[in-house]
Amino acid sequence: MLPLIFSKTDTIKELITAGTDLTFMSLNALHLTVFLGDIFSTVVLIRSGVDVNVTDESGGTPLHYVCGNNEKTKVIKTLLTSKDNNICINYNADDCARELLANGADVNRKDNKGCSPLHLACRQGENGLVRLFIEHGADVNASTNEKITALHVCYASNNPEGGDILLENGADLNAIDAWGRTPLSYGMDQVHTKGFDNLILLHKLVKLGANIDWPDLDGFTLLHKACKEGNSEVADYLLRNGANVETKTNQGSTPIFYACDGLHEEIVATLLDRKCELNAQNTDGNTPLHVAALEGNELIMTLLLKAGSDANIQNNNKFTPLHLTCQFGEYIKSKILLKAGAKINQKGSQDYTPLHFAISSKNTDLVQLLISQGANIDQASLYSAVHVVDLELVLLLQSKNHSLNFNTENLIEALLNAESRNLDLLNYLLRMGSDPNSLCGPLTNLALACKVDCFGYVECLLQHGASVNACGLTGTTPLMATCMNKHLAIANLLMESGAVVNQKDDQGWNSFFYACSNGNLDLVKCLHKKGSDIFLESKTRSTALIEASQHTPIIKYLVDNGLSVNHKNNDNCTPLFNACLYDNYQGALYLIEKGAEINAVTESKRLTPLHAASMMGHAEIVKLLLFFNADVTIKSTSGNTPLLSAVGNNKLEVVKLFADLLTNAETSGNDYGITNRSELDSEWQRCFLHAAVYGFLDILKFLLESGLIIIDGRDPENLFSALHYACYSGKYDIAHYLIENGADVNAESSEDFLPLYLASHHGHLDLVKLLVTSRATIDAPNFHGNTPLFSAAANGFLKIVQYLYENGAKVHVVDQDGDTPLHDAACRGHLSTVEYLVSKNADVNYKNKNNKTPLDVAIEKENQEVVELLKVITQSE
């Protein structure tokens, strides 16, 4: 192939004579020579008999390549890289094209994307080739798979000269592509890109009859786009040529919406002169005035209102333009709307008024403006001011309406839940009558203040009479909420104010439980000193030590103060189990050293600490437990040992650790509960099968490469091998690895299910192909007489049926019930499969043991489409 690149014609002749393969990476030599414009080599190849219409993997012919635009360009450029300074290539694409056409090249042949050579010549601006192709019969209106014509391509590629050639030869100026766009639409893109000097192109296309009002798939016309992009010259030209100012996009927006949105005052004025509909509403219910209120400027709003826009139209959320300007604190825009008669107390969604929005925007001047114009100050207004934590606004509202009630809607909750803090505002609310003991959702005000960790709020609420021991809906006290946040200073303040340290919530926890669970040792000690019952058991018989399992210092403190390391809750969960579950190595070690039972089993799932660490992948904890001779043979309620739990959760490092320690158990002096080494071997085999089922390739590789398993070892329950399970569950990577390493593709199971049968039955085409190419027996039946094709047909997996048939599988197989694949496909209503089987001469009249044909079965199951098909076939025979 290299002499082709270097244009060594004599050498090429010699290579052809010698029978050299003229392909490279799916490219024929002719593709390369025409791409390079090498007319001499092109002539040699054509005369030697190379097909002028040969295609590459993308469907490209040499005539496509002569245009210099194809998917193999990078490959060719790579081949061109050379240190040979004597390389000389004569680029003569036009002559190459003529030679190809003279020898029968198909000028209208399309590649896989539907592109003809003409499309590519237009894209590259090779207008000499454009003329040549047309002279030789190129279809100027041929379209790609996406309905793109060559004229679309010319204007999308800024090739107006090529467009002129196409139009002179009958190209459809109004052709529509898959996106609903015309060639003019693409020409407009170039106008916007290249500047207004190209308006002559637009004038030319319109004069030739281009439809300027054709919408694309989103409903955008050329006028919409010009308005959106602020192209006043284009917009003016379109309007002078009759463009429809009322055409709506799919969102219901006319061109003026986009002019308002883009701040294009000149275009807005022009559209208003054209008497466009001012109060049209889009799919959101917005008018152009709504858009101007949100995105436009004061001038545009003034133009719209002066032209007659209704300032009180509500959108789908019942918001007027005034709502929107107030929402964003727009003082001047709001003033303009008020002057134009906007209703100041109009209620929108959730009864929001413009004043509510103005308050939320924290624009005091705007709020004062609305109030001066008669805005109603209601309870929602007060709530909004508190919600945005603005004391100045609260004072303003109260000064204008002395009847506001400060003890409704829990204003304190709004303040406590706000991101910012304002102690003066809280003081003011309480002085004005807000209840310090009202509930904030499930908590009291004081508990919520503790939860948000604000000492000032807590102190203020206590000073105004908040109950220090009042409970929320679930029994949570302020002290409990503080212990959740580990705030010692607030806890001390509460206890000094009379907080009961041993008060319980609904689950039986006291404050001490929460302090231990959240890990503040100083707080734990403080509560203990204040009389907390450290031996308290919750309603589930949990203890503070069980709940402190993630915090080693607290574990030590509690054990040192007498809590039992082996106490079990209602599920028999121990402190050690939780420490292992949450990867607290030091805590687990301390508990073991203090006598924790290492093999304690939980009640509901029969899990040990080793199970917990294994399934979570905590390798160091596993190592620790095994060092203390934890039992690896204990099975959970689901039958899993700790080792199998690690495999089931894809914890490779833990599996490796088990392998290292268990295979060297003699040297460690531990037996790990293993009494029979054959049981351990069986367990490794189970792990291997589980890894295959779940698709855990790394674990599978490790087990095989470590010599721990036999690749074709079986599950004693069904005699499935790892390959069976991989095919059953659709794990291609697993199956591929197993086969590469010698797994038996024809291994039988207890009911004669071979891997190929399982892959076919469950619809895994990629696995079916893998097995067939690996010499799996294609028609091996199971215990019931069903073959892989039989099962695929029964389940409607047409592509598998086709593949198996093409590779030698029989379509007429009879199982123990006397049924054929056609019977089962008809029974289950798989029309396409039935059609295919019949096309491959499946016997439509064969009767099963119940004396029923496939048609009879289809009638019985009321599969009407199949019935109609089989009736036509049987009647024609």
From TrEMBL:
Pfam families: Ank, Ank_2, Ank_4. It comes from the Eukaryota. Keywords: ANK repeat, Repeat. Coiled coil: none annotated. ANK repeats lie at residues 25-57, 113-145, 146-178, 218-250, 251-283, 284-316, 317-349, 350-382, 474-506, 571-603, 605-637, 718-750, 751-783, 784-816, 817-849. InterPro entries: Ankyrin_rpt, Ankyrin_rpt-contain_sf. This is Ankyrin repeat protein. It comes from Tenebrio molitor.
